[in-house]
Amino acid sequence: MTKKRRSQHWYGKLDKDGFIHRSWMKNQGFPDHAFDGRPIIGICNTWSELTPCNSGLRDLAEMVKRGVWEAGGFPVEFPVMSLGETQMKPTAMLFRNLLAMDVEESIRAYGIDGVVLLGGCDKTTPGQLMGAASVDLPTIVVSSGPMLNGKYRGQDIGSGTDVWKFSEAVRAGEMTLKDFMSAESGMSRSKGVCMTMGTASTMASLVEAMGMSLPTNAALPAVDARRGALAHLTGKRIVEMVDEDLKPSDIMTRGAFENAIRANAAVGGSTNAVVHLLAMAGRLEVDVSLQDFELGSDIPLLVNCMPSGKYLMEDFCYAGGMPVVLKELADQNLLQSAQTVLGGDISVYSDGAECFNEDVIRPFADPVKPAAGLRVLQGNLAPNGAIVKPSAATDHLLEHEGEAYVFENIEDMKANIDREDLPVTADTILVLKGVGPKGYPGMPEVGNMPIPRRLVTEGVRDMIRISDGRMSGTAFGTVILHVSPESQAGGPLGLVKTGDRIRVSASTGALDLLVSDEELAARRADWQPDAPHYTRGYAKMYVDHVLQAEKGADLDFLVGKDTRLVTRESH
Ligand code: FES
Predict the structure, then answer these.
(1) Is 209 in the pocket of ligand 1 (CB under 6 A)?
(2) Does this model's pTM top 0.90?
(3) Which residues 6+ apart lie within 8 Å of 31 measured at CB?
(4) Which domains does the chain have, with CATH numbers?
(5) Would the pLDDT of 118 be above 90?
C-alpha cells in the first residue's frame, strides 16, 4: 500500500475538517479533482516591491505552476517575509532567521507535499533553505536570476562593487557628484539580483553546486526567457520528487556541503556564504565547521567576475555558467558524489558542459588567481575564528603587522573616519567593534569600512580592516570579518585599544593581538557590554538567542529539525 500523502491529512478527509479545508480553497475556483490525492506543491514566494531583486518572482511563480499542473500536481503559492538587502534597517541579516521561521512554520502548518522556494536577494535564499530544511519536505529552489550587466558611459559596471569604487572616487575628488548620481540609473537596468558575484549569485551558485536547483539556475539572467522555462521544468520535477520522497536531507549531505565550499572558492564567492552554509548545515544536523572552509583554500579562482575579477553574471551565463565550473572541479576529482534534485549524482549537472569564453571561466590550469578560497584565521584576537577573502584582498597585506586604530562602534567610525587629523597611515590596521550578531544587532555588512579620506586622496585604496561584522559579497579589500566571539559577547576584540599591535598571517591562519595576557586580563576586568539597542520584540529575542558567526548566527532554538506531522486540527 502506498503511503498516504501529507496533504491528504488536510484535504482527504470526508468529515467536517476535510469540508472546511476544501471548501474555503474552492472559493478560488479550484475543482474537486484538485483535492483527489495529487501532490500539492507549495510555492514559497519572497516577491516584494521592497525587495527589488525579487520583483520578477511573481512571473516565475506562474511558470512553476504551469509545470506543476502539467505533471499532475496542484500548485498553491504563498507569501513569506521578504528581505530587501538594500532597503532594510538596521540590516537584512537581522531578519534572516525570522524569514526562516516564517518559511518553516508556513510549510509545517499547511497541507502541502513539496515546496518550490522562490528567492534571490542575499538573505532570502539561505533563510528559505534553513526553514525548509527544518521541515524536510521535498524542496527545489528557483532563483530570481541576476540583473543584466550594469552600464555607464558605454562601460559595464557591477552592482555594489562599482558603488564602492565610485564612492571612493568621489571622496578622492576624482569623480563629480553629478557623474556619481548619473551612474545610479545605469547600474540596475532590469529585474533581478546584483549581477556581480555578490552574496545572491554566490548562494544561487552554491545551491546549484549542492544539487538543490536544476542546472543553470544560478547564472541565467532574470529576464532571460530560459529562466521561465527552468521554472516550468522545476514545477514538473517537484511533483516527481514528491513521489520519490526525495528530501533536502537526502541532498544536502556532508559531501554536498564540501562541494559548495570548493565551488565557493572557484567562483570567488561571498564571505557571507560561510555564515549561511553553517546555519543550513546546523538545520540539517550535518557536521560542518568553520575550519571546513579551509577545504576551499587551495582551489583556484576560475570565475573572472567582480568583485574578484572583471566580468559580470551575464557574461558568466553566456560562458557556460555553473555546469562548466562543476566540470572543472569534477575533472580534478574535487567534486564529491552527492544526490541532487534530479535524483542522480551531481556529476550529471556538468554532462556536456562546454566553456564558450575561457577568459570568463578559466580552466584549472590557467586560473584568475591560484589558491583563492577563504582563509580561516584564529588567534588570541579571534579564539573562535575569523575569515578573510584572499581573492579580493591585496597580496602584501595578507602578511602584515601594524598598529591598531580602534572605532568603538559604527557611529564612532562614521563620525571620525574622514577627520584630517586621524592618526593613521596605510600600514595602520583599522578595528571596528560592536557590529557582530548581538552588538549591532544583526551582523551588518559594514566590515569593509571606508579608507580614511586623507589616505584616499594620497592614493591608498586598501588597508587591513578587522571587525566582528560581515561585508557585502560585492565588496573587496583586505577585510578580516566574523571575528568571534564578537566584542558585545565579551570577545577579545572588545579589549583592543588604539596603538596595540596586531599581526595577521593568512598563510599560517593567525590573527594575534600582541598584548600580554596580564594586560588583557586587566582590561577585561574593566570591560562592560554596551546597553542593548532593543528591549522588546523579535530583535530582543534575536539578541538573546543568536549564536556566534562560527555557528552560522542562527538562533539557538532553531538548530535542527522537526519533521513530525501536525495532527491537531484548527476546529
Ligand atoms: Fe538584492 Fe544584491 S541587493 S541581490
Answers:
(1) no
(2) yes
(3) none
(4) 375-533 (3.50.30.80)
(5) yes
